[in-house]
Design a protein that fits this description.
Layout: E1 30-31, E2 39-40, H1 41-54, E3 59-61, E4 71-77, E5 95-114, E6 134-143, E7 149-155, H2 156-169, H3 180-185, H4 187-214
Antiparallel strand pairs: 1-2, 3-4, 4-5, 5-6, 6-7
């Protein structure tokens, strides 16, 4: 088992954990990302944040690293939707706020739908689409890493990020919110991701088997 990982592997489209409804989680829990030693939840959240920066993302949900729990990390950048551009500039230097949310629940506070932003997903790399309908403003109730209840309101792009990450906790991809023909257009790319996801799970199973054999 690998100790104190700098980043986690991100699970790809086709991995069953990404379609499962995640369970509630407590701030005091110790969690074991598959393939790694157990860590306190706070350390897992910090490593998820590092993983998100490494992948040049704006958010990352626990199921995307193999943990079916209701937690995600996210950031607000100075230039929001441009987080995937300007690769020469460190993302950390552009962060306005960072978030780690446990057991988030969303309440829509502006029912108007916005479809203008381009949306992507770290579990579906290389695929970006406009037209994903998201509420313009939401209120998020959640627990922070200290176990304190918090409430936050967000609009526009940040509201979209929160809705996208909460979808992950319910096993939903952004492609699911677009017409079926959009997914069909990416059939070849998605099939490739499914093969990689299956191979990763096979490798993980074999590594765990070897570990158990070493332990006798």
């Amino acid at each position: 088992m690998a100790e104190a990982p700098r980043v986690y592997p991100i699970r790809l489209y086709g991995d069953p954990v990404l379609r499962r409804k995640a369970r509630a989680v407590q701030a005091t829990e110790t969690l074991a990302v598959p393939g790694f030693d157990p860590q306190p939840l706070r350390e897992v959240a910090n490593t998820m944040l590092e993983t998100m920066f490494e992948a040049r993302g704006v958010g990352l949900a626990a199921p995307q690293v193999g943990l079916p729990v209701r937690m995600f990390v996210a950031v607000e950048y100075e230039d929001d939707e441009e987080e995937n551009e300007g690769g020469e500039k460190p993302l950390r230097s552009r962060v306005l706020r960072s978030f780690a949310m446990l057991n988030p629940t969303l309440t829509v506070i502006d029912k108007k739908k916005d479809r203008t932003y381009q949306e992507g997903c770290l579990s579906i790399p290389g695929i970006y689409e406009e037209g994903v309908p998201r509420s313009r403003a939401v209120q998020v109730r959640y627990m922070d890493l200290d176990g304190q209840e918090r409430t936050l309101e967000a609009d526009d792009y940040l509201a979209r990020v929160f809705q996208h990450e909460v979808d992950h906790l319910d096993g939903v991809f952004f492609l699911d919110r677009l017409p079926a023909e959009v997914t069909d257009d990416y059939r070849k790319e998605l099939a490739g991701m499914q093969r990689k996801a299956k191979q990763y799970l096979n490798d993980l199973t074999q590594a765990e088997k070897r570990r158990r054999e070493r332990q006798g």
